[in-house]
Design brief:
Strand content: 5-15%
Helix content: 55-70%
Pfam families: GntR
Distance between the termini: 17 Å
Low-confidence stretches: 124-128
Radius of gyration: 17 Å
Protein name: Transcriptional regulator, GntR family
Strand order of the largest sheet: 1-3-2
Mean pLDDT: 91
InterPro entries: Tscrpt_reg_HTH_GntR (IPR000524), WH-like_DNA-bd_sf (IPR036388), WH_DNA-bd_sf (IPR036390)
Keywords: DNA-binding, Transcription, Transcription regulation
Order of helices and strands: HEHHEEHH
GO molecular function, one term: DNA-binding transcription factor activity
CATH class of the largest domain: Mainly Alpha
CATH superfamily of the largest domain: Winged helix-like DNA-binding domain superfamily/Winged helix DNA-binding domain
Structural class: mainly alpha
Largest sheet: 3 strands, antiparallel
């Protein structure tokens, strides 16, 4: 399910967060799907439980996971939280486009970068942050 890179500069908990987002975006994980328990995931990945717990807490904070006492943790997409993150991302993108204009990066180069990002997005082995 997860492919962590121990030699990456990206902390393991962040890799779990980003790979979870990627699996949701790719349709591998769907709203309502159960997630492995913290204990089970830490055991299968051979990492500390606190690392997995930190990742799960971040995903809950981001409106992506929900823990139901006695039942487990599930993918549960909170549209309000996700919309807030989306709005912030759009603002950041706007700022980036202004900087591109300032530095003379033309629309063709932006499209090229966007197309490359689509290719990388579907590379499920990627550990890059979403």
């Amino acid at each position: 399910m997860f492919d962590l890179n121990n030699s990456s500069q990206i902390p393991l908990n962040e890799q779990i967060v980003e790979q979870t987002k990627l699996m949701i975006a790719q349709g591998i994980l769907l709203d309502g799907d159960p997630m492995p328990s913290v204990r089970d995931l830490s055991k299968s990945l051979l990492i500390n439980q606190s690392t997995v717990q930190k990742a799960y807490n971040k995903l809950k904070e981001d409106g992506i996971l929900l823990t139901k006492k006695g039942l487990g943790t599930f993918v549960s997409l909170d549209d309000k939280k996700i919309d807030l993150k989306k709005a912030r991302l759009e603002k950041n993108l706007y700022d980036i486009f202004l900087k591109c204009r300032f530095y003379g990066i033309d629309f063709e180069k932006i499209k090229e970068i966007y197309e490359k990002s689509k290719e990388d997005f579907y590379d499920s082995g990627s550990n890059e942050p979403l």
